[in-house]
């Protein structure tokens, strides 16, 4: 680990040869007046928007939408199955009509046709699922709506930082979008894969988040954060570092509304991953007697903010592409395509 000095706070960097853009963003974070003690950049840190992806930032009395990120609650889910590597490598050419095909090919083909990726949407199967979606999404929109009333800014579907950009966002459109996107993977670096463990045991891992819902929450509260910083003459080195107070006054109420919307989006993201894993489980059971072992499920957000105590202060710890590794807690480190992934436990070492 390298300690980089020169700003108001030091940067603790575990990324050798950190790219220039990410280093500049970390330095901007280190000079943010509400930041506390140090900025941490993980081994895979790289340039994001405002804050590097793979960074940890503690803010005292403040919360920043883009320090959490656009895909609120993006994270990993990992679960064991009842299968072995040999099960997945069993020939199935008689079924598939493809010479040399094995069960793995058949299963992943079903996954690709059953779970939408990219901008595709789906209809959630059960009434209970839809009711849950509407309840969580309703909580998120209620927080958005209150924040808009307090701040005087209208809600928008736009990603623009301009307050009057884009079409108005209403409750019906927000909830409908979230219901349609539940149980879908998304795009970018999101994935579903089958992995073989050290004892030839088979696991399912996926990477996804809150889909378009997190982006709508982030972008609207980011515009409010920009308005707060402008109204109170708080100069920003980078607009991506705009923040909201978490206490006192009307802007503190807006910061509180973001916390409520954040919690709802985290709930939605975890539930979205669960829906996809349940679908994978049903697919496995088409081909095998047993599918997923739910007692071994691990689900971890890596885009979130939590109120924690550090260095004698209660602060909002923002983790963007990073996870908390408290002593004994499980962690997931996904490898790049074709390389190993790791299920670990935190040591609780001070950062």
In short:
The protein is of the alpha+beta class. 37% of the residues lie in helices and 23% in strands.
Care to describe what's here?
The protein is an alpha+beta fold and 351 residues long. It has a domain at 77-300 and 325-345. The chain is 37% helix and 23% strand. The chain has helices spanning 20-30, 65-68, 85-88, 93-96, 103-114, 127-151, 171-181, 211-231, 249-287; strands spanning 2-4, 11-13, 35-46, 53-59, 62-63, 75-84, 191-196, 201-208, 244-245, 298-301, 303-310, 313-320, 330-333, 342-345. The strands form four sheets. It has a six-stranded mixed β-sheet, covered by helices on one side. Strands 7-8-6-10 form a four-stranded antiparallel β-sheet. Strands 5-9 form a two-stranded antiparallel ribbon. α7 (171-181) packs across α8. The N and C termini lie close together (10 Å). The model has no long low-confidence stretch (mean pLDDT 92).
What keywords describe this structure?
single chain; alpha+beta; six-stranded mixed β-sheet; four-stranded antiparallel β-sheet
């Amino acid at each position: 680990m390298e300690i980089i000095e020169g700003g108001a706070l030091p940067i603790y960097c575990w990324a050798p040869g950190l790219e220039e853009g990410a280093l500049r963003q970390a330095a901007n974070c280190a000079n943010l007046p509400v930041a506390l003690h140090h900025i941490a950049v993980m081994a895979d840190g790289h340039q994001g928007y405002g804050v590097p992806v793979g960074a940890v930032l503690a803010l005292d009395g403040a919360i920043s939408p883009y320090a959490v990120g656009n895909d609120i609650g993006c994270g990993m889910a990992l679960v064991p199955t009842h299968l072995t590597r040999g099960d997945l490598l069993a020939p199935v050419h008689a079924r598939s009509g493809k010479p040399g095909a094995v069960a793995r090919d058949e299963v992943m083909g079903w996954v690709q046709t059953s779970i939408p990726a990219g901008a595709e949407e789906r209809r959630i199967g059960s009434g209970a699922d839809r009711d849950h979606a509407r309840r969580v999404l309703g909580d998120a929109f209620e927080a958005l709506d209150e924040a808009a009333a307090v701040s005087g800014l209208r809600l928008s579907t736009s990603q623009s930082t301009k307050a009057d950009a884009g079409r108005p966002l209403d409750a019906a459109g927000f909830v409908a979008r979230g219901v349609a996107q539940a149980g879908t993977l998304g795009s970018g670096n999101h994935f579903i894969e089958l992995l073989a463990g050290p004892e030839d045991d088979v696991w399912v891992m996926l990477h996804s988040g809150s889909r378009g819902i997190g982006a709508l929450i982030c972008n609207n509260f980011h515009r409010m954060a920009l308005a707060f910083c402008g109204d109170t003459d708080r100069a920003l080195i980078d607009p991506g570092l705009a923040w909201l107070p978490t206490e006192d006054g009307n802007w503190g109420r807006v910061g509180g509304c973001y916390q409520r919307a954040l919690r709802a989006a985290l709930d939605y993201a975890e539930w979205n991953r669960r829906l996809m894993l349940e679908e994978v489980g049903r697919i496995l059971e088409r081909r095998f007697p047993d599918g997923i072992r739910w007692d071994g499920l691990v689900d971890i957000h890596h885009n979130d903010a939590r109120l924690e105590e550090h260095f004698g202060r209660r602060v909002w710890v923002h983790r963007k592409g990073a996870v908390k590794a408290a002593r004994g807690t499980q962690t997931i480190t996904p490898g790049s395509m074709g390389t190993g992934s790791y299920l670990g436990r935190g040591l609780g070492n001070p950062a």
